[in-house]
Amino acid sequence: MREYIEKSQDLDPKESGKVLYVVGIGPGEYGQLTMKAAAALSGSQIIVGYTVYTDLAREHFPDKEYLSTPMTKEVDRCCLAFEKAGEGRRVSLVCGGDPGIYGMAGLVLELAPRYPQVSVEIIPGVTAASAGAAVLGAPICHDFAVISLSDRLTSRELIEKRLSCAAMSDMVICLYNPSSRSRKDYLSWACEVVGRYRKPETVCGLVRNIARQGQEARITSLKELALIQADMFTTVYIGNSQTGADHGRMITPRGYRYV
Amino acid sequence: MREYIEKSQDLDPKESGKVLYVVGIGPGEYGQLTMKAAAALSGSQIIVGYTVYTDLAREHFPDKEYLSTPMTKEVDRCCLAFEKAGEGRRVSLVCGGDPGIYGMAGLVLELAPRYPQVSVEIIPGVTAASAGAAVLGAPICHDFAVISLSDRLTSRELIEKRLSCAAMSDMVICLYNPSSRSRKDYLSWACEVVGRYRKPETVCGLVRNIARQGQEARITSLKELALIQADMFTTVYIGNSQTGADHGRMITPRGYRYV
After folding, report:
1. Nearest residue of A to residue B130 by CA position?
2. Residue A97 bridge partners (DSSP)
3. Taking CA A132 as the corner, what is the angle to CA A127 and CA A137, rounded to the nearest 5 degrees?
4. Per-residue pLDDT tens for A114-168?
5. Residue numbers of A between 109 and 128 with CB closer than 8 Å to B
6. Cα–chain-centroid distance for residue B120?
């Protein structure tokens, strides 16, 4: 591990060209960063991101220049990162979890042709679906659908269709962004949609502040889940017909046989 | 990073109790291990796993005792790991990617009540869906379904239903285990099922040996994908109606607007 980071710290923009690193920092806990992600942050001069994620990075990499843009200013944030990288600075754009799952990887790559002198490297991270699953047990150990309940960029009709289809084909459902100040009733609505195909006693779980201070986890039923007030920092799991709650763990069996 | 591993190496089974670590090693490249995963392996005396994964671990942690069981002996593998942990040895059971996604986390937790003296800690990793996505661009930056084509433990009817439902609700589809020696035509069959709902020119991608020696990536169409011979070390992405191929990258836009 030492050799790995020492080698990586030799990164020199003059030799390596102009690179923008898009870095997944995982759920938040320092140990859940990959070594590659830690090396990219350690070797950066500037770290750009939404404040929740720059604050997490700052705890472990305090000697950096930090730049943020507010929640809805994702395009500005990506352009800022490209501009700084274009000036020859070593820049990481940080995302919570994995940048390729509801993170900035897509938008960065869409904007990349405007900055032909900067190459982009995506450094994957542990996404909330994986990190939250490990807290609850093994809820997504079989086929699953990952669906965001945020309707900022997706119509509610399409979200409903995806929930229905995932429910009717008995996939485990992992919900990102289950609720927010302006969408207080969305989790309850999602439970109602899924409940058209799945029993009220279906095993469900939720984890809040995964691997961060104040982590909370709970295993419940679909019927009870509909009554819970979640927030943007909660990841929700709706089990399939085989999912069980065993010794305080939510487990979706793959189907291995044992006596 | 140094402090992290030094602290972790102090792990002592007499103090920490008997623990079985179920460790996701990510796609294979050393840098894509999380620091927590590297610390668990570094602090273990015995590393148990399927040979593909113990061979990957051995490259970086050579001074360990390695124990393996063949492909279909998953129950024996987990019991072996529990037994060694029960004897007071420091044991990690390694899984490729994330142990919670088609890995051993579920089975280990199902078997755990038989070994009440051993507690289980799941250490998540970067799953193939994330690692392969970073190679291709950003194919799963919107809602997606993860479906295994292996019918060893799941009926072909259920797999077909899940493929159909994911396709009809325009989710990106990420396929694990797309093919094997005994299921040579399964990827072609999956393309046919998805093709009932999605155009032949739908952008698709596949990555073989993600972050390992011999990594290969390709962006293609649904029509062409049906003709490709994949294997168990390939992860396949079938885009949604909005997925594009831009400057050699497969990108599923989230819907951010920019001029």
Report:
1. A124
2. A26
3. 130
4. 999 999 999 999 999 999 999 999 999 999 999 999 999 999 999 999 999 999 9
5. 109-113, 122-127
6. 20
